[in-house]
Design a protein that fits this description.
Bound molecules: zinc ion
Distance between the termini: 42 Å
Number of domains: 1
Order of helices and strands: EHHEHEEHEHH
Oligomer: single chain
Structural class: alpha+beta
Strand content: 5-15%
Strand order of the largest sheet: 1-4-3
Amino acid sequence: MAIFEGSIQEFHYFIGPRIRNAINNLTRKHRQNLKGICEGCGQKNELHSAHVHGRERRTIIETILKPYIDSKIINCNIEEAENKILNAHLPIESCFKFLCHSCHVIYDSNVKATKHSKESTTLPNGQNKESEEIEKVRRKVPLWF
Ligand SMILES: [Zn+2]
């Protein structure tokens, strides 16, 4: 029974890469099952794994570790914590969207736009900051955000 004792930063540093690998294996399998069909536009393309906003790996890890924290120090059974963290990523579709490059850019720009909704995105000449390319693709993308 291996025990981890340390700060959250140390957990990310020492245990984080192991968890990242395990998650990459999960996303790879799922992505292969999709056979290159983008979840955004439905076109066949090379797919990226886009993180669902609010379901990032670090966010999930920190949520799962909360019960193990006492005075900012985590004390946990590594295997148990790791299993809980991996389970919290399932189903994998709840944490990732599998998108082509264009849809990935749009997805991330929409997340940013939501995060900074109070900031103006209009340039002095009245044009929107978003490139024409994004606008072009956005028009053919369904509202799946
Ligand atoms: Zn797409």
